[in-house]
Design a protein that fits this description.
Layout: H1 2-9, H2 14-32, E1 84-88, E2 101-106, H3 108-179, H4 184-253, E3 255-257
Antiparallel strand pairs: 1-2, 2-3
Helix pairs in contact: 3-4
Length: 259
Amino acid sequence: MRRGILPAVLPRSAHGRWLVLGLLAALLAPGCGRQQKTEVARAPRPLTVQVRRPETRDIVRSVGQPSFVESYERTSIYPKLSAYIKKWHVDIGDKVTKNQVLADLFVPEVEEDCQTKYEALELAEERVKLADEKVKVADANVLVAAAHLDAAKKILDQYEAQVARWDAEVKRLTRETKLGHVDARVLGESDSQLKSSIGARDAALAEIERSEADLKSKTATFDEDEVGVEVARAAVEVARHDYLRVKSLVDWYLKLYAP
C-alpha cells in the first residue's frame, strides 16, 4: 500500500521528482547524525586573594638626549713676569679649579736673587749669634775690670795705713832726735819707709785710676756690643723681609694659577 501511495504523490515531471527527493533528504538528514555528548560544567574554585599595601616611591626616568656644553666665557691667562715654562701640570681639556697651579715658570735672575737673599738672611742670623757672644765676652771683661778696681782700692787702703803709721813714727822720732834720745840714723830709716809707703800709695792711686778707666772702657764696649746685638737683629728682620719679598715672586709670579 505504501508503494501505491508514493507513486501517487510524486509528480510526473522529472524536475518535480528531484525537488521532492531533495526535500525528503533534508528532512531525514538530522535523524541520521550522531547524538552529541552533553558535559556538566563544574563549579569554579574560590579565588585566593592576598592583601598587599602598595609601596610609595618616586618614579625616576632617565632620558638621554644628545647635547653639547660650551664655555660661557673664555679667559686668556698671562704670566706677570716674562719667563720660561718649566713644567706643565695640566693639559688642554683638563678640569681645573680656581687658584690651581697650571704651570711652573722659570726666571733665572729671579731665582738667583732669591738664593742670594736667603744666604744674606743666614749671614745676618750668624751675625746675631756672633754679637751675642761678643756681649758675653764684654760682660766678662766688665766683671774682671770691676774686680781689678776693687783689688786696687784694697791695696790703696793698705798703703794709706802704712803711710799714716810711718808718718806718725817719723814725727815721734823727730822729737826724740831733737832731744838726743834717738840716733839720727833711725830717723832716716823711718823717713825712708815713709817715703816708700807714700810712693806705693801713689802707685795704688794710679792703679785705681787705670782700673776705673779700664772699667769705663769695658762698660762702654759692653754697651756698644749690646747695641750691636740690636742692630744685628734689625738687620736680620730687614734681610728676612727682603728674602720674603723675592720669595713671594718665586711662589706667586713664577707659578701660573687658574683664574
